[in-house]
From TrEMBL:
It comes from Recurvomyces mirabilis. Coiled coil: none annotated. This is 3-isopropylmalate dehydrogenase. PANTHER family: 3-ISOPROPYLMALATE DEHYDROGENASE (PTHR42979). Belongs to the isocitrate and isopropylmalate dehydrogenases family. Residues 4-353 form the Isopropylmalate dehydrogenase-like domain. Keywords: Amino-acid biosynthesis, Branched-chain amino acid biosynthesis, Leucine biosynthesis, Magnesium, Manganese, Metal-binding, NAD, Oxidoreductase. Its cofactor is Mn(2+); Mg(2+).
Amino acid sequence: KGGKLLVLPGDHIGPEVVTEALKVLDIIEEYSGAKFERDFDLCGGSSLDKHKDSVTEEVLKKCENVDAVFFGSAGGPEWGTSQPNPESGLLRIRHRMQIFANMRPCNFASKSMVRRSPIKEGIIRGVDFMLIRENCGGAYYGNKIEEEDYGCDPWEYRRSEIERVVRVAGALAMQHDPPLTVWSADKANVLASSRVWRRIAHEVFDKEFPEVTLRDQLADSLAMLFITKPTAFNGVIVTDNTFGDILSDESGPPAAPGHKPTLGANSAGGVIGLYEPVHGSAPDISGKGLANPVAQVLSLAMMLRYSFNMHEEADLIEKAIANVLDSKEDGGLEVRTGDLGGKAGTREMSEAIQGEVKKL
Ligand code: NAI
Ligand code: MG
């Protein structure tokens, strides 16, 4: 059990929260007997400072020789005008590794998080889905045309691009017994690329995942139902780049009630898995020990689950986080960072999570 990791902490709070997440990994190693070899390197502003590039060829090569990349966050105002910009390092890793399936979980392990949500408790209680966004194709890539009076973004999908991403959804559904339902969101009523997507998705499921129910849903109506009846989509949702971009932000308030930047792990799987929190490098609070480590630790749990098949350990970490977030409601001490209305610092919050992991 275990494997090889490339750790890219990045800039500002990236290293602060990555350090804390790796302490949780130490505990997991002890508890499970798994061993994770960790190689640390630079990406983003720190790489620009040292190598005048947001990511080096050497680091890109390293990505090809590990089981997973554990990423913090990159960027900051001090590199504002530099070319390339620090964030391009991450984009280049994603592109090189063809990290085509971006996974955004939405569930409510924590009672206090449910209560903080801008959406009514009765509507979001019990929501539990995984949104998978195709991340290497569609309208965001291809040969763009930009002229004075004309702009064009070709919205293209090839068979291979559709097959590989819907397969991730099918495999995920099959990890459950009975298998989860998969929804494929498209606009097959108006877009040719969506009609091809829909047809190929069904071909793949009929052939490779006959036990899984695949249902089609128009992306606009899905967007509405996300707000009024999100539990209807418990299971797996798979969708293209554009719809996925919008729907994943829409699932932000339920996933991380009221403060998308601080919760919810965002992971992307492709040739290898790359795991990172949704939030950025938060330069406004860096160096002060105030950053909330929860999203980074949740990214660690996703890495264990999806790159190393360590479901029990991932469950344990998620449960530990929910316990810490709910400890006040449960009559215990409040341990919360400032973004959650508490007074705890990064270390204190992290130690509370580590303590819970050890207890469970
Ligand atoms: P951000 O997510 O870094 O910060 C937005 C707000 O949320 C800030 O007030 C920040 O203090 C707070 N916040 C974020 N994470 C937090 C945490 N863990 N604990 C407590 N508070 C937290 O987004 P912003 O300000 O738009 O971007 C800052 C920098 O990060 C930029 O250079 C941006 O390009 C970069 N960025 C990098 C990403 C990545 O590496 N994947 C993703 C998003 C932004
Ligand atoms: Mg977006």
